[in-house]
Design a protein that fits this description.
The chain has 412 residues and is of the alpha/beta class. It has twelve helices and twelve strands. The protein has an eight-stranded mixed sheet. Bound molecules: zinc ion.
């Protein structure tokens, strides 16, 4: 196969990233493109328009995942490459989007060069990676990987009670294709690092060798409504206070295990959450993470003790109503080797790195040999509208993606 000198069209990739940044622009110039909103649908239509303008077949599965196909010389399972186009409520312009648009640039560059790979290559946009509107994150790739059912997916609700199924139908992207259950050759995802290590080490490329172990949970506190004035302090059962104490204790756990350990209270809701009345109900969403699974387990155990202590102190009942866990993902040695070889051929300095955030690649790694590539983001700022990336390094990583995917698609 020719194509060792093939490069993506860097200016076109950048201009598409900037076009994406116009769809659902946030207050501070980043993106607010929550999953299955009109903005998300508009970006999906833009992607499909780009694909169809170049004659690529597009298909959509029942979970709302979009696939764009470059046929191969042989009818073999495809190499999949992609990420997600949805964002956080105050999201950046590159988180997820780079992986989809760089993936599309891969197949477009091949087609323009007249190169037909041995295996098909499909670009994928995974629906609702962020979990910002419908929790938990990485929902549609979880269904694709057989970890969750389609019914479960459709029944998730947003804060307004709209179900995933309803929202998906409203976008027009509820497709006919079955979700997953088909043979894949492999999966490649390029994502911004969302941390400072690549920049600090002056490497345009991180090859992800594994993930931090993450234990997450939603804790529900049940107390009793009462007047904020006459109710004696020792008789109060304020659910909001119990939740707030858990939030503060979670942060202390993070500080105790820093800098490698991280612990986060990200969401707290209370009812009635009004002046003049104690809350009878609250929920707090927390997680702990560490690169060493044993330490992550110790952090989880500390958290559990903190929940008991906080509930006692606030005189409320605490119940863990949902839990999640990830971190035992294994990325594929052969796919990683192709990434490393491509980087070395292109002279792109690289390093091995562990992912501290969840990605669709985690679920895909359960059903296909998977590689996750990181490119730098400026000062590690992400899930923030100021998120930015350096042009040259981003393009260097994108060219490594191109060469690694080509090599995988062409292998014997
Ligand atoms: Zn992302």
């Amino acid at each position: 196969m020719t194509g060792g000198n093939l490069r993506i069209n860097e200016d076109r990739l950048w201009s598409r990233l900037m076009r994406s940044a116009e769809i659902g622009t946030g207050e501070a110039g980043g993106l607010k493109r929550l999953a299955l909103t009109e903005e998300d649908a508009a970006m999906r239509r833009q992607l499909v328009a780009w694909a169809e303008a170049d004659g690529f077949p597009v298909s959509v599965d029942r979970a709302g995942n979009i696939f764009i196909r470059l046929s191969g010389r042989e009818e073999l399972p495809p190499v999949l490459v992609g990420s997600h186009l949805d964002t956080q409520v105050a999201g950046g312009r590159f988180d997820g989007i780079l992986g989809v648009l760089a993936g599309f640039e891969v197949i477009q560059s091949l087609k323009e060069a007249g190169i037909i790979p041995k295996r098909p290559i499909e670009v994928v946009n995974w629906a609702n990676e962020e979990g910002a509107r419908f929790a938990p994150p990485m929902m549609a790739s979880a269904v694709f990987a057989g970890v969750q059912s389609l019914d479960w997916l459709y029944e998730r609700t947003d804060d307004d009670g709209v179900t995933y199924g309803e929202a998906l139908a409203a976008t027009g992207f509820r497709g006919d294709e079955p979700v997953g259950g088909r043979a894949l050759d492999s999966y490649f995802e390029l994502h911004i690092e969302q941390g400072p290590l690549l920049q600090e080490n002056d490497r345009p490329l991180g090859i992800v060798t594994g993930g931090y172990t993450v234990h997450g949970m939603v804790i529900r506190l049940t107390g009793e409504t009462a007047h904020t004035g006459p109710t004696p302090m020792d008789q109060r059962r304020n659910a909001l206070v119990g939740a707030a104490m858990i939030a503060a204790a979670t942060n202390e756990i993070g500080l105790a295990y820093a800098p490698i350990g991280k612990a986060t209270a990200a969401r707290l809701v209370a009812w009635p959450n009004k002046p003049g009345i104690l809350s009878s109900w609250a929920e707090v969403t927390v997680d702990v993470r560490h690169e060493d699974p044993a330490v992550a387990e110790a952090m989880r155990s500390d958290l559990q003790q903190a929940i008991v202590r906080s509930a006692e102190r606030a005189r409320v009942e605490a119940e863990i109503v949902s839990t999640w866990y990830f971190g035992d993902e294994v990325f594929d040695a052969d796919c990683n080797a192709l990434v490393r070889q491509a980087a070395e051929r292109l002279g792109v300095p690289h390093m091995e790195i562990k992912s501290q955030a969840g990605h669709d690649a985690y679920y895909l790694s359960r059903v296909a040999p998977t590689a996750l590539l990181f490119s730098p983001c400026v000062d590690g700022i992400t899930h923030n509208e100021r998120e930015d990336v350096p042009f040259a390094e981003t393009m260097a990583a994108s060219n490594v993606l191109l060469q690694a995917v080509m090599a995988r698609a062409e292998r014997d």
